[in-house]
């Protein structure tokens, strides 16, 4: 009975959700690459990059949804350049598209040489999160995304294509 009442309340609230701009979800984090995070060649471990990607993406998803989020899938992660010991690793994330209870977040990773400031794009990833209601611990509807720029609209369109592929792979349709 209580669960049904919560569902009804959520439906009423969901119909009143106002769009939130992409800029509200943008997140950035940076840290220095230390020896414990590298392989014998002095390069940042791929698993460490994936962990940082998940953290940066979760920040963007939480900011947009104002809720707890859980990782549902990682569609794509592409390692282009290595991040070296002693460099900064910088991650930038933002929500690309909102579906119903899920959001696709794009993450770009850069390396930065401390002495020269030179940056290289090292990694791109797309991570899907589901917003979780703090009381019921069930998925909750996420407010729509307000698109303002041509770049945001492009990312929005491309996210729909990635979702089609993801669902086709998951369900064979």
Low-confidence stretches: 8-13
User: Over all CA atoms, what is the radius of gyration?
Assistant: 18 Å
Which percent range fits the helix content? 25-40%
The largest beta-sheet arranges its strands as: 2-4-5-6-3
Q: Average pLDDT, to the nearest integer?
A: 91
What is the CATH architecture descriptor?
A: Roll
**Count of helical regions:** 3
Q: Main beta sheet, described?
A: 5 strands, antiparallel
Task: Label the structural class.
Answer: alpha+beta
Shape: globular
In what range is the share of β-strand residues? Answer: 25-35%
Write a structural description:
With 173 residues, the protein is of the alpha+beta class. It is 32% helix and 34% strand. It has one domain: Hotdog Thioesterase (Thiol Ester Dehydrase, Chain A). The two termini are 36 Å apart.
What's this model, at a glance?
The chain is an alpha+beta fold and 173 residues long.
Keywords, separated by commas or semicolons:
five-stranded antiparallel sheet; 173 residues; 7 strands; 32% helix; 3 helices; two-stranded parallel sheet; alpha+beta
How is this fold's topology laid out?
Elements: H1 2-14, E1 20-21, E2 27-32, H2 46-65, E3 68-79, E4 88-98, E5 102-112, E6 119-132, E7 145-146, H3 150-171
Parallel strand pairs: 1-7
Antiparallel strand pairs: 2-4, 3-6, 4-5, 5-6
């Amino acid at each position: 009975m209580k669960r049904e009442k919560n569902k009804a309340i959520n439906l009423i609230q969901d119909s009143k959700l106002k769009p939130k701009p992409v800029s509200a979800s943008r997140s950035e984090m940076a840290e220095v690459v230390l020896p414990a995070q590298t392989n014998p060649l002095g390069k940042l471990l791929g698993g460490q990059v994936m962990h940082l990607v998940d953290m940066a993406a979760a920040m963007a998803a939480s900011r947009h949804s104002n809720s707890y989020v859980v990782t549902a899938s990682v569609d794509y992660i592409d390692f282009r350049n290595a991040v070296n010991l002693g460099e900064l690793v910088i991650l930038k994330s933002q929500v690309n598209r909102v579906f119903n209870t899920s959001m696709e977040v794009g993450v770009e990773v850069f390396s930065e040489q401390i002495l020269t400031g030179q940056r290289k794009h090292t990694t791109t990833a797309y991570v899907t999160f589901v917003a979780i209601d703090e009381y019921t611990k069930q998925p909750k509807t996420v407010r729509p995304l307000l698109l303002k720029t041509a770049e945001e609209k492009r990312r929005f369109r491309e996210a729909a294509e990635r979702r089609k592929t993801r669902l086709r792979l998951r369900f064979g349709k």
